[in-house]
Amino acid sequence: MNKGELVDAIASQVSVTKKQAEAVLNAFIDTITENVADGNKVVLVGFGTFERRERKERMGRNPKSGEEMLIPATTVPAFSAGKVFKEKVANN
Fold first, then answer.
1. pTM of the model
2. Do 58 and 28 fall within a single domain?
3. 63: CB partners within 8 A, 6+ apart
4. Are residues 54 and 85 in the same domain?
């Protein structure tokens, strides 16, 4: 499912226009993105948790040349699925 299909599904499920559904979805995504970028954790009980995680500096290997290289530390977004979400996926 892509974003357009998700907008269509939301619009039909809650009886709003596609434009309204897209506006709500964009606001949802923007709010989560901004909060996680600021270092806040976003918890949606039953669905999951969005957070910011730090990756330590580590040694890796260049796949092309095979030589070892240092991979610098970085900050990445992370999602952990909630219990209800995990159970739903496991039972289907």
1. 0.81
2. no
3. none
4. yes
Q: In what order do the strands lie in the sheet with 42-44?
A: 42-44, 48-55, 74-81
Token pair listed for 7: 């907008």
Is the Cα dihedral 5, 9, 12, 18 positive or negative? negative
Mean pLDDT by 10-residue block, N- to C-terminus, for the chain (92 residues)?
96 95 97 97 96 96 94 96 94 87
Boundaries of domain holding 74: 41-92
Same domain, 17 and 51: no
pLDDT for 47: 95
pLDDT tens string 42-63: 999 999 999 999 999 999 999 9
Quick check: helix, strand or coil at residue 65?
coil
- Of 57, 92, 49, give the one whose Cα is nearest residue 73: 57
